[in-house]
Amino acid sequence: MPKYLYPNYERGDRYLHQLCKRAHRLTHHWRTTRELYSPGIKLTFGYLGNIARYVKRGKELGLLNNILIADHAFAPEQLKNQVYRLGVHNERIRGLTINHKRALSASARNQIYSHLLSLQAHSEFRLMGNYQKFKSNQHSTALVIQPAPVLIGLQTRKFIDWPAESSVFRSRANSEGHQIFESYKRLEIGIDQNGERSKTINDGQTFKIPTKQIISAYCPTSMMALNLILQGIPVTLSAIHPFADQLGLKIATNSKTEAINLVYELAIKTTIECKYMKRLEGEMDKFSLHDCTGYNGLQLSNSKRD
Questions:
Q1: Domain for residue 262, yes or no?
Q2: How far apart are the C-alpha atoms of 232 and 228, rounded to whole Å?
Q3: Which H helix or E strand runs over 139?
Q4: Range of the domain at 256
Q5: Is residue 300 part of a domain?
Q6: N or C: the chain end with fewer CB closer than 10 Å?
């Protein structure tokens, strides 16, 4: 019987308990564990706690090959704690592709689609950050979003050179005559050398930037990439973005229809509903998380990959 592994930090433990309780209303007390060394594949919540500590300390990394990671999905608020996206750590965080016909109800799919439509209807982004050189008469902006320290810290070898990659993007934007806006989050969680959580509070001004003004974006790790793609904005990801395997590193300009279809297909193929977790558990012993080619396209049924 697959176990639900507490990530070993307070907030994550709470989310893991909620997940297990929703998936197994009557038996959740017997399905959770804190035993990282127990045999078999386990499901945990988030990247912090056990995952971060083992990566940063370089300690028995092979253990991570037996852990599935659940995290909040790209979905509306009303589905929070009901749907999750899945990933694994294989030298970096990587997203899983799931057979959505066995992982999401029609109701959840409809709610996700409606949510994407509402996001696409937004005419501006509210972003904290600063302009490299602000010109009031400039109407084209290249957006640079700072990467998440957690995802950078969870690499066991270097997949991203943030200064070099952002420098190339900035140079191209400057040569094309666009102003550059660098965006960052007010609250950013990182990890120290021991894999423990560290918190940074950033100060800065919040700007309203019209979506039609943004001509391109470098979004190395943020889920905001999907909001940008919905607007038809060309986006560059990094190799450590959780959806890099599914989207590739460069997403070109799309029409609004093409854009919402792309993001919708991505959302439903990387999301699982709690009530279908038992189907996932039934397949967990049939694939290897260490084999990067084997898990991308996890099937929860005998049907062919759609």
A1: yes
A2: 7
A3: none
A4: 110-268
A5: no
A6: N
